[in-house]
Amino acid sequence: MDAYIFSAFRLTIVSLLFFVGIYSAIVFGIAQFAPNHGKGEIISQNNKTYYANIGQTFTDDKYFQSRPSAVAYNAAGSAGSNKAPSNPDYLKEVQARIDTFLVHNPGVQKSEIPSDIVTASGSGLDPNISVQAAKIQIKRIAKIRGIAEANLKQLIISNTEPPLLGLFGPEKINVLKLNLALDELKN
């Protein structure tokens, strides 16, 4: 019996040293090679500070809309909705998002709406949308702001991020960066 207690105690001490000390130091060291040393991407513009790696809500029609959030963009409660795609409540929520999008974007057909503009990501904090989700909003923004659609298309192209290492994932656009560039755009 004493041998088991001593072995369990020794395993606990070794695990604590490894996972609290060594593993944490390794993760911290790797983060130093990441952009902004693992502290997130901070953007300052017009005396305001933004975190570009956390999704934010844009409800004004003169801006590109973000991906919906299951946690109201609260980084302290990062999570998805945990509802299955067949859940009736989830389907009602997505249908409400589709209906709202169609009201704010007249002329767009339901079949044209990219899924990422009406469904939340797994974290609920995704700061990016697809290129298609940005392009489908061009007509609305051009009309409201009086900006040529060609200028908005060029803005989308200049803010499109390629897949990781050119291989992993789709092209994407950070909505905060796009909207900040939109505010700076002159027709």
Notes on the protein architecture:
The chain has 187 residues and is mainly alpha-helical. The protein folds into two domains: 1-39; 42-184, no CATH class. The chain has six helices and five strands; from the N terminus they run αββαβαααββα. It has helices spanning 2-31, 88-104, 131-135, 138-145, 149-158, 175-184; strands spanning 42-45, 48-51, 128-129, 160-161, 172-174. Strands 3-5-4 form a three-stranded antiparallel sheet. A hairpin with a 2-residue loop joins strand 1 (42-45) and strand 2 (48-51). The longest helix is centred in the N-terminal third of the chain and has 30 residues, at 2-31. The relative contact order is 0.12. This is Potassium-transporting ATPase KdpC subunit. The chain crosses the membrane at residues 12-34. It is a single-pass membrane protein. GO terms for molecular function: ATP binding; P-type potassium transmembrane transporter activity. It is found in: Cell membrane.
DSSP helical segment count: 6
For the secondary structure, the number of strands is: 5
Mean pLDDT: 87
Fraction in beta strands: 5-15%
String of helices and strands: HEEHEHHHEEH
Helix/strand structural class: mainly alpha
| Biggest sheet architecture | 3 strands, antiparallel
Q: Strand order of the main beta sheet, please?
A: 3-5-4
Return residue spans where pLDDT drops below 50 for at least 5 consecutive residues.
none
- Helix content percent band: 40-55%
How far the N terminus sits from the C terminus, by CA atoms, comes to 80 Å
User: Radius of gyration, rounded?
Assistant: 22 Å
Membrane topology: Single-pass membrane protein
Transmembrane segments: 12-34
Subcellular location: Cell membrane
Keywords: ATP-binding, Cell membrane, Ion transport, Membrane, Nucleotide-binding, Potassium, Potassium transport, Transmembrane, Transmembrane helix, Transport
